[in-house]
Write a structure and sequence with these properties.
16 helices, about 65% helix, mainly alpha, single chain, Glycosyltransferase
């Protein structure tokens, strides 16, 4: 375990350095295209988690990320755009909610959030069960929802609760599993999950981890390892071996190659490399942060079922 913690700490340092060196590429070229906001929303989530796990301790790299998020989300055109098109609550306001959870309040984004809330959003949106969990979780963490969400009913409609054999899962189902567990366990755990549900989750996650580690797909490997941290399964041989494999995949520049990285030409542009590395690097950083958090201090169990 000491070796894992050391590797997690070292990887966090170089991974955050890579993120800060590429902050300009997280800013969307077209701010009115929701597909271009995805990377910024995911960066905001990483910032919110690391800020909480480090108890708000000063860190120049997190401050740089915070500054970039505030600079973009403070542009008047962003809250104006999402107020006109509430179907874009995700990703536009989803990019704001983790920032809000750290105590930041941006007046125009606050007004947009309240206006859409009065109109019935985000809960008026049609979405998959795990996306519904995502919005319940993020609005609760951000202090917009006054009560912890009632996740039991929504969870019962997810892939994880309904499908018992992961051999049949396509990529969308696997990502549904990992994200469902992110929100049920507050990413890092520990969580007061019913014993049967925890055993089911482990029985699904561990075979998937073995498959995607051997593939290798470092994006899903990182997400599944993060699930096991939250499920208190981070001292098994499978966890340690696959975590070691992930650490060995980390590139010298501080990024982690995504599934499509091998398709890049040798003269690929800086943006092309970024597009194929940023998400996997963010998830790997979440994993390292969660592992360091869980092993550094005792964390109170959170009740996640209503």
């Amino acid at each position: 375990m000491e070796s894992l913690i050391r590797h997690a700490s070292e990887s966090t340092e170089k991974g955050l350095a890579w993120i800060v060196d590429h902050l300009d590429l997280f800013v969307p070229e077209d701010p009115f295209n929701p597909e271009n906001i995805k990377s910024l929303a995911e960066l905001s989530l990483l910032f919110g988690c690391l800020f909480e796990w480090r108890s708000g301790a000063a860190d120049a790299r997190l401050e740089a990320i915070q500054s970039q998020l505030i600079q973009f989300l403070s542009k008047p055109c962003i809250p104006e755009w999402v107020r006109k098109l509430p179907a874009y609550y995700s990703p536009y306001l989803v990019a704001y909610l983790p920032l809000r959870s750290t105590g930041i309040r941006l007046p125009m984004m606050e007004e947009a959030t309240k206006a859409l809330g009065r109109a019935g959003y985000p809960y008026g949106l049609e979405m998959s069960p795990y996306r519904e969990l995502e919005l319940q979780y993020l609005t609760w963490k951000a202090g917009i929802s006054s009560k912890p969400p009632s996740w039991g009913t929504v969870y019962r409609r997810t892939t994880l609760a309904r499908c018992r054999n992961p051999i049949y899962f396509s990529l969308p189902e696997v990502y549904s599993v990992t994200h469902t567990l992110f929100y049920l366990t507050d990413f890092t755990g520990p969580a007061a999950i019913a014993r049967a549900d925890r055993e089911l989750a482990i029985s699904v996650v561990e075979p998937l981890l073995l498959h995607y580690w051997r593939k290798p797909d470092w994006d899903l490997t990182s997400e599944l390892l993060l699930n096991l941290v939250a499920l208190d399964r981070f001292e098994t041989h499978l966890f340690c071996a696959s975590f070691k494999g992930l650490q060995q995949s980390w590139r010298p520049d501080g990024s982690v190659p995504g599934p499509a990285f091998g398709e890049l030409a040798s003269d690929a542009s800086r943006r092309d490399v970024f597009e194929r590395c940023y998400h996997t690097t963010l998830v790997a950083l979440l994993l390292c942060g969660a592992l360091l958090h869980r092993t550094a201090e005792s964390v109170d169990v959170c009740q996640v079922y209503a």
